[in-house]
Design a protein that fits this description.
single chain, alpha/beta, Aspartate Aminotransferase, domain 1, Aspartate Aminotransferase, domain 2, 2 domains, 3-stranded antiparallel sheet, 37% helix, 15% strand
Length: 448
């Protein structure tokens, strides 16, 4: 989208058209005197650029959240972001894009979206990808809604190990449609319990949703669910909250997923204060393409044979009749997906795999060191970069480590009141061996 500044002649003509002589008169007419500040603002004297930089550095040192070591995850992850991502995504043409209604002047935005779709499809092993949703939670909810539209069934099974906030969002989305969401229990490995699945599953189920790595950090091996479903109309929906795992683990397509959704925040977006996120949505079934929420950008050629990009599919109510729309998502997260595209382009397949391998190796190291110190894991299943440990009182231990400026993780009692001893710990490539060793030492001391 282009933005045109106004020069003095433009301003004069606009004021003349609306019948006022100056901008001051315009404000005077629109804003009552009682609401106007008629005195000069009491501002400090102007500072030079170095002085301004020094001022904000001093304010930064006053920030109470600085200097903490993070072992925090649970759906929002602290990964290293190359400076090139910040530099390139800060270009004006990337910062200001919105819905590309006019493809002839939106080729840059459309190509960025197309490249993003291509890379996400490659990572998930799926044929088709949309141009993003708000976050992983809304992507999961949209997955259930699309399964409902495709199967016409109203019962859905969701693993208890799916992120609790994703589950809450799903229930918010479906509650007015008369859809029923039932939870599959977790076994001692932290995986979907086959006995619980067998008890709940029948021909009335429209979809089964599984997350891997799941909320407890365990890598789900869910190919057996696809085998159980067989040729029925029930769909298998895969959720990935930690997108970096796709650089190392088997893809959702390899496990037989019909729909793969998730959160791509790990690709070039900082944790910030929990957002913004970047939800992705993919499928390999061409029949599902017309029911996919959001939009799809395609590659074509113009009348001169040159490559061009267009909105191939737009199923939002902004584009088509409301009763035919599959989603009311009103943003394609263009800037977020542009950062993800830049990040993935910089990392490449080998770089992404190396970063993922570091996450896995460091997390396994931390888990083993804790077990040596008498801090057992809650679940026996394989992990990627998160795991749950058992403590005497997870909340108290976490609070004690906060005093040491260590954010040790997430007490699971925040989401599961009965899990008072469970602490979810995340280790990424940003954590050094020294930081991990200190965490283990302080955990042992605080738990004693």
């Amino acid at each position: 989208m282009r933005y045109f500044p106004q020069n003095s002649e433009d301003i004069r003509q606009m004021l003349e058209t609306i019948g006022v002589s100056s901008v001051e008169e315009l404000f005077h007419r629109a804003i009552p005197d009682s609401n106007r500040c008629c005195e000069p603002l009491k501002l400090a004297p102007a500072l030079s650029e170095p002085e301004i930089a020094r001022y904000f550095q001093e304010r930064e040192r006053e920030n109470l959240c600085s200097g903490y070591t993070l072992f925090l995850g649970g759906g929002c992850y602290n990964h290293y972001v190359p400076e090139a991502v910040n530099a390139l995504s800060s270009k004006a043409e990337f910062v200001t894009p919105y819905t590309p209604y006019q493809p002839e002047i939106s080729q840059g935005t459309l190509q960025a979206i197309f490249e993003y779709q291509t890379m996400v499809s490659s990572l998930t092993g799926m044929e088709y990808s949309n141009a993003s949703l708000y976050d992983g939670a809304t992507a999961a909810a949209e997955g259930i809604l699309m399964a409902w539209r495709m199967t016409k069934k109203t019962r859905f099974l969701v693993a208890r190990s799916v992120h609790p906030e994703y589950l809450a969002t799903i229930r918010t989305y479906v509650r007015n449609f008369g859809l029923v969401v039932e939870l599959i229990d977790t076994d001692e490995f932290g995986m979907v319990c086959p006995l619980s699945f067998e008890k709940l599953y029948d021909e009335s189920v429209g979809a089964v949703m599984v997350q891997s790595p799941n909320f407890f950090g365990v890598i789900e091996e869910y190919g057996w669910i696809k085998e159980k479903i067989g040729e029925s109309k029930c769909l298998l929906i895969s959720v990935t909250a930690e997108a970096l795992s796709l650089g190392y683990l088997k893809s959702p397509a390899a496990w037989g997923a019909d729909i793969a959704v998730g959160e791509a925040q790990s690709f070039g977006l900082y944790p910030s204060f929990g957002g913004p996120g970047l939800g992705f949505f993919t499928t390999s079934n061409k029949k599902f393409l017309w029911e996919m929420p959001g939009r799809v950008v395609g590659e074509t050629v113009d009348t001169e044979g040159k490559t061009g990009y267009v909105l191939t599919l737009s199923t939002r109510e902004q584009h088509i009749r409301r009763e035919r729309a599959t989603s009311n998502i009103c943003s394609n997260q263009a800037w977020c997906l542009t950062r993800a595209s830049i990040f993935l382009s910089l990392m490449g397949p080998e770089g992404l795999r190396e970063a993922a391998l570091q996450n896995h190796s460091k997390a396994v190291y931390a888990q083993k060191e804790m077990e040596k110190r008498g801090i057992p894991s809650r679940y026996k299943g394989p992990i990627f970069n998160e795991f749950v440990v058992l403590l005497k009182d997870a909340r108290k231990v976490q609070e004690r480590l906060l005093e040491k400026k260590i954010v040790a993780g997430i007490p699971l009692c925040w989401f599961f009141p009965e899990e008072t001893q469970s602490l979810l710990i995340t280790v990424t490539e940003t954590n050094t061996k020294e930081e991990i060793d200190r965490l283990v030492k302080e955990l042992e001391a605080a738990n004693g």
